[in-house]
Design brief:
The protein folds into three domains: about 90 residues; about 250 residues, Rossmann fold (3-Layer(aba) Sandwich); about 70 residues, Winged helix-like DNA-binding domain superfamily/Winged helix DNA-binding domain (Arc Repressor Mutant, subunit A, Orthogonal Bundle). It is built from 15 helices and 18 strands. The strands form four sheets. Strands 6, 7, 8, 9, 10, 11, 12, 13, 14 and 15 form a ten-stranded mixed β-sheet that branches. Strand 7 and strand 8 form a beta hairpin. Helix 5 crosses helix 7. The longest helix is centred in the middle third of the chain and has 24 residues. Bound molecules: adenosine-5'-triphosphate and magnesium ion.
Length: about 450
């Protein structure tokens, strides 16, 4: 038996007892208790024992994987959860602790770090938070009422908070209705498949425009971060990320002729060019046909499946989200993420969507507000390194880091007519003039409950 050092001794003893019970249980049924290995390990907040059968020596397998046997084994082990894994060999998976339960509803936190996106919580209480470039392109599936649109909305809000421009398609006009006219929209919200198709065309045209910008920039930038670093040095405007989100995208894809031909070509192009030019896409749909899944899956970095119909179990498996059809109907927001496993995605209360005050674009921290106000009042908006360092009481290095970040957000730009020093832009002045900084709520997440 292998034992991880951090596992409580109690579980180790329990595992030994279970091993003896297993042997006796099999013998009583005239089955051979030929276990090659017993693993004890912890994952997702659970302690799990795996008993591996030596399939080369047990003869007829069928009796070992019988539903009835599993059921009796469960009773024998005092009602513990017992699962069978027989994809490679035969393994009995026995939970020594209860299945952890995720809260049914977790509100989108207000304090997701700037420039990051948070999707939800895993079984072990860990929050899935990524940089936008790590998020890349994303696929979201799930049957009606499973939570797709809510996740899309929570991502849209976080994009706005990060100053990202949005291209949105909302065929049933319920997902993004509250964002109509929002100043972060890169184009009006598309409400027909044809308009949605135009968003893809527009995203590709933006790739062309950015390609030309990259080309004209000395230093051969290969991605947006590299380009922006060079642009700021040269006193040019940095590029902002663009996020295209298509809800109900299967209808859009149908309008584009399915998974072969035009669609596949356009998607592939946007897939690889988009990454390079800071343009991401997210496709949401109730389901994807086989040929569509092929075309889309190749382009995305991550797939998320909410509850799908039993008939879509294969599709969920094909995108790396096995068992999404087992998610109960009364668990909207619960999803399988191909890269992270089960997750409860964030819920965005209507009030948060409606109160424009909360979806503040590029909200200022207290430090930023103080420094910007002082720069405007005493230095015509000039924010040199020494000013940031002196006024903020921070090192030159920290000051440089802040200066770079602000330039990237479009809050500072170099003034060529003024010895190339950094000045606050109109955008930053507006933010300064408009209201208070967002109160970052302290950690208000519900801890994971275990039963
Ligand atoms: N993350 C979540 N946490 C808790 N409840 C949720 C969550 N997401 C969705 N719900 C609940 O499920 C309902 C349906 O969610 P949503 O509209 O996102 O589904 P959908 O997958 O977009 O469905 P459709 O395909 O019909 O548009 C919501 O009104 C809400 O009550
Ligand atoms: Mg929806």
């Amino acid at each position: 038996m292998t034992e991880q050092p951090q596992i409580n001794r109690r579980y180790f003893l329990e595992a030994e007892q279970i091993a003896q019970k297993l042997a006796a249980f099999f013998e009583r049924r005239n089955l051979k208790p030929l276990f090659t290995n017993l693993f004890l390990f912890q994952d997702l907040g659970m302690t799990i024992l795996i008993a591996v059968l030596d399939t080369s020596r047990i003869g007829d397998h069928s009796q070992y994987i019988d539903d009835d046997l599993l059921h009796q084994l469960k009773t024998e082990l005092g009602g513990r959860s017992v699962y069978l894994s027989n994809s490679t060999g035969i393994r009995y998976v026995i939970l020594l602790t209860a299945l952890p339960r995720l809260p049914r509803s977790i509100e989108l936190p207000a304090d997701v770090p700037h420039g990051m996106v948070s999707l939800g919580m895993r079984f072990n209480g860990q929050i899935i938070t990524l940089t936008w470039s790590k998020l890349g392109h994303l696929l979201i599936v799930g049957m009606t009422g499973s939570g797709k649109s809510s996740l899309l909305r929570s991502i849209a809000i976080q994009a706005i908070r990060s100053g990202i421009k949005l291209l949105l398609a909302d065929i049933d006009q319920t997902t993004f209705a509250m964002l109509e006219g929002n100043e972060n929209l890169f184009a009006p919200i598309a409400t027909t498949p044809q308009d949605a198709l135009q968003l893809i065309v527009k995203a590709l045209a933006e790739c062309d425009r950015r390609a030309a910008l990259y080309k004209s920039m000395p230093g051969f930038p290969e991605n947006m971060d590299e380009y922006n670093a060079l642009a700021i040095k040269a006193g040019k405007e940095p590029l902002v990320r663009i996020l295209m989100m298509l809800d109900e995208s299967s209808s859009v894809f149908k309008a584009m002729g399915g998974g072969s031909g035009e669609l596949a070509g356009k998607l592939a192009e946007l897939g690889w060019r988009g990454r390079k030019f800071g343009i991401h896409f997210i496709f949401g749909a109730q389901e994807f046909t086989k040929d569509l899944v092929g075309a889309v899956r190749e382009q995305v970095n991550m797939s998320i499946a909410f509850r799908v119909k039993p008939t879509s179990a294969q599709m969920a498996k094909a995108i790396g989200c096995t068992n999404a059809h087992r998610i109960p109907a009364d668990r909207p927001g619960f999803a399988i993420v191909d890269r992270f496993g089960p997750m409860q995605s964030y819920f965005v209360p209507k009030a948060l969507l409606l109160s424009s005050g909360t979806i503040i674009k590029d909200a200022l921290s207290d430090l930023e507000r103080n420094l910007f106000t002082r720069a405007i009042e005493t230095a015509q908006g000039n924010l040199s390194l020494s000013r940031i360092s002196e006024w903020g009481g921070i090192s030159q290095r920290q000051a440089r880091k802040l200066q770079e970040t602000w330039a990237l957000r479009g809050w500072l730009s170099k003034d060529a007519s003024n010895s190339n020093s950094f000045y606050l832009t109109a955008k930053a002045r507006n933010l300064c003039a408009n209201g208070q900084s967002v109160q970052t709520r302290s950690n208000q997440l519900v801890p994971v409950q275990t039963n």
